[in-house]
What does this fold into?
Amino acid sequence: MVLNIEIIKFIQSFSNPFLDGFFELVTILGEDIFFILVVSVVFWCINKDFGYKIGFAYLVSGIINTSVKEIFKVPRPIGHPEVRSLRLETAPGYSFPSGHTQQNAVLWYSWMVEFKKRWLYILGIFFILLVGLSRLYLGVHTPLDVLGGIIIGLICIFLSNSLFEWAKREDNPLIFLIFIIPMLLGMYFFPTGTYYKAAGTITGFWLGYNIETKYIQYQVQAPLLKQIIKYILGLAGLLAIKTFVKMLLPEAIFSDFIRYTLLGLWLTVAAPLLFRYILGVGKAKKFFAN
It folds into this structure.
């Protein structure tokens, strides 16, 4: 712990208002809002299969990150007399592993593994390390947290991609129950809002995957203007569910599970159907075929 604090102190010795603002912006690359923006545009407008793959990887990683935090319960460096901590709203719960670093790593690992381009490896490694550095500069994680996030993120990619490819090869989305069932059981052992939100999102995403691949078979191709309209409409729906459904449900962590399940279903089922009927795009070859 002493070495961790000394490393944070060294990094923060370069602190100034410009770097404060810079690293507060950088750390957003590891937050859910960035994931939503990226996965939505990939799934709705670019490559549906890759959208599923990157979505499952990120959500599996979120469940594993929250579980590891709750198991080890490592305290954050926040409050240490020699550490200055900023952007505390991004640092709830326990410290190990760094969720921002892990989730950002998973996003970049996904692109690296999928496309295998040298420039993507260079760019990905740069941003993974930069987000990790931002968590140290902001004083909300230790170097061990960041290193753990990078390593566990790599494991999550292997696990999620293996399940996805297996399910696709066998044409059997039920294979994901190998992960889904233990995740749902984990709701009993980890009754936190963070876990329930992640569990709800992956539940909705998986249910949507079952429905969309069997009955809808959404196609992403569309003229540029309609792609932009799709993206705006889709994000508006996500925001509406996140905001207004919260107002309708009681204050409880299970309400978070329901709300985030609806978000997963909107992303994979409701939004593609909206695009079909409102914009006339995304038409399946066999819509609601047996």
About this structure: Residues 286-290 have pLDDT under 50 and may be disordered. Residues 192-290 form one domain. The first helix runs from residue 2 to 12. The chain has two domains: 1-159, 192-290.
